[in-house]
Amino acid sequence: MSKQLLFIPGPVTVAEPVLAAMGKPMIDHRGPEFKVLLESISRKLKPVFGTSGDVVILGSSGTGGLEAAMTNMFAPGEKVLCCPVGVFGDRFAEIARTWGVEVEVLPTAWGHGVDAQALKARLDADTKREIKGVILTHNETSTGVQNPMGPLADAIRAHGALVLVDSVSGLAASEFTMDAWGFDVVVAASQKALGVPPGISMVAISPRAWEKMATANAPRYYFDLRKAREFAAIGQTPATPPVSQCFAMDVALDRYAETGPANVWARHQRYTDGIIAAAETLGLELFAQPGVRSVTVTAIKVPAGIDGDAIRKTMRVERGYVLGGGQARLAGTIVRIGTMGDISQTDVLGMLGAFEMELLGAGLKIQVGSGVQAALRVFLEASQPSAA
Ligand SMILES: *Cc1c(COP(=O)(O)O)cnc(C)c1O
Known about the structure:
Blueprint: E1 5-7, H1 16-21, H2 32-49, E2 54-59, H3 62-73, E3 79-82, H4 87-98, E4 102-105, H5 116-125, E5 131-137, E6 139-140, E7 145-146, H6 149-157, E8 162-166, H7 178-181, E9 185-189, E10 200-205, H8 207-215, H9 225-232, H10 243-259, H11 261-281, E11 297-301, H12 308-319, E12 321-325, E13 334-338, H13 345-361, H14 370-383
Parallel strand pairs: 1-12, 3-4, 3-5, 5-8, 8-9
Antiparallel strand pairs: 2-10, 6-7, 9-10, 11-13, 12-13
Bound molecules: pyridoxal-5'-phosphate.
Pyridoxal-5'-phosphate (PLP) is lined by residues 9-10, 61-63, 88, 137, 139, 141, 166, 168-169, 189.
């Protein structure tokens, strides 16, 4: 099978016009064309983050953006409250520890979102304001959980701690209102919901965060956000940027605006609803609790006696559908299906049909076609004009 459709949660299937933009001739990254390109990208990213503040781009994957956020904001010995709900939240905390930032963890069982009341209670108890930052994951890709960002923002506001958010697999797939929520540094990456090849991390920064950075003294060089801002002011980046990805990003942002953000969000929700309906009809359990389920990745528990990794392998090799597996302690126990990127409703139906074939082949007792049918119903209902 030479054709492959990516149903993994990044990198994602890239639309042809976006891919084609990568083939443009190279330009001088210190010349006038790049200045126009960088300003265009930065301007178009602001509404995606829901901010009127600065958005800088870094030549890195999402993890580089997370490291930039942490090292620019906090100095060794300062304390942050990390609220991990899976592998990527743990990674953000690990970055903090690596740089000598003191980490306290607000524990959450995997599959759940952060409990806003527990967060508020912990912050209320911090009467001496020892906690300088709260570290959140918007969308936890390893468990398929999307945190309730509005309630979490409300829980933090009175305390006044700075808020760093990993929205790498969340941004652009649902509404994000950074300024209204009062977040200070929000990190995203090109290869997720915006559907661009990997290579760019986008970092949105509040005025309050810039003030804090002026006094933070952790060592940094490549990921110096203040330097990135200085260079952005003259239409450049401190070091050579991923120019081809920038061409692609500009086209992807135009497509995002033309489609309409609300339509993009609705598409991710609809695909997710279809996949969830299929899973439930097939008698499969979801890993994430109701109410906090991600719209970019659905984690499905593999039934006892079935080898999820073997199913994924056959789907990839023989049917051309690439699904994600479980990470860290979830390895082998879940299958993760992404909804980001250039995939259609019929792609989703085809993938679900292939998934059913593999489940049947593995000996699971399911009614043939019932999962696909459940998803098809969701899609047909969504396409009906709503009764006013
Ligand atoms: C993909 C992802 C990252 C970053 O991963 P990179 O491989 O460094 O781009 C970080 N956080 C979350 C939630 C992600 O999904």
